Amino acid sequence: MEPNQFGSTMRESSATKMDVGLRKHMNKIYSRMAGGVLVTALAALIVGSSPTLLNLFLGGPQKYIVMFAPLAIIWFGFRPEKMSSGQLMAAFYGVAVVYGISFASIAAVATNDAAFAISVAKAFFIATSMFAGMSILGYTTKKDLSGMKTFLSMGIIGLVVLSVINIFTQSTMMSNLIAGAGILLFSGLTVWQTQDMKRMYHPNNPAELASRYAWAAALNLYISFIAMFQYVLHFMQQR
Predict the structure, then answer these.
(1) Residue 120: its pLDDT value, please?
(2) How many CB atoms within 10 Å of residue 214?
(3) Rounded distance between C-alpha atoms, residue 213 and residue 208, angstroms
(4) Fewest C-beta atoms under 10 Å: which of 93, 118, 134, 193?
(5) From CA 34, how far away is CA 27, in angstroms rounded?
(6) 131-141, pLDDT tens digit by residue?
(7) pLDDT, the chain, mean
């Protein structure tokens, strides 16, 4: 075999290994993210079907603790650079459960209101379709999207601030503005996150490191999907 042919064969073999490994890595991330969504749905149904649990978690000022608990876990209890994959898994599902509890009131209303249940189902389908489309775009685009990170991060921080203010002002106009901006920001974030997931993958990463990356990526995608679902549902309720 000629030297150039040998080199070409080695490059092709390396590329094949990369493609197979990357597909497995991405499948692992999406399966973990889907598992988180399932846990959220189950937690919402369990708490929403129990008046006692619903009142315990959401019947008073404690609802704000439930509302902001996921942010606390993400900011202070999810450290991929320090925690093991097992610890990250526990934190991930902890976030999923708390989000499920915060959605319990939605599940309770949907159980007793067929029209609202249809709106929830439509919002979930729309959010899923949008998420899939944005993720495919992020996976296939050749354009470097790294410059989006700062803009999106600042936009989401602003969104959180406005959301907190609107808890007290209860402005319908601001709610609509927040929901519209949220859909755009988290759609863009999904595109960037997907490309970043590809960029961070390397076939020679140790299994533990790869698993930690996968849990971190699954959490990022999970949050983006949940946010998109909430904002789409907001508009479905306006109809």
Answers:
(1) 92
(2) 26
(3) 9
(4) 118
(5) 10
(6) 999 999 999 99
(7) 88
Helices and strands (H, E) in the chain, number of each type: 9, 0
Residues of the chain with pLDDT under 70: 1-18, 239
Beta-strand ranges (E) seen in the chain are: none
Please report how the helices 207-238 and 114-140 are oriented relative to each other, as an axis angle in degrees rounded to 10: 140
Q: What is the number of alpha carbons within 13 Å of residue 222 lying toward its C-beta?
A: 31
CB 96 within 8 A of CB 213: no
Instruction: Give the phi and the psi of residue 84 in degrees, each rounded to 5.
Output: -75, 165
Nearest to 190 by CA among 164, 156, 238, 233: 156
pTM of the predicted protein model: 0.87
Could you tell me if residue 197 is left (phi over 0), alpha (psi between -120 and 50 degrees) or otherwise beta?
alpha
Q: Which of 55, 77, 76 is nearest to 66 (CA)?
A: 55
Question: Chain-centre distance of CA 124, in angstroms?
Answer: 13
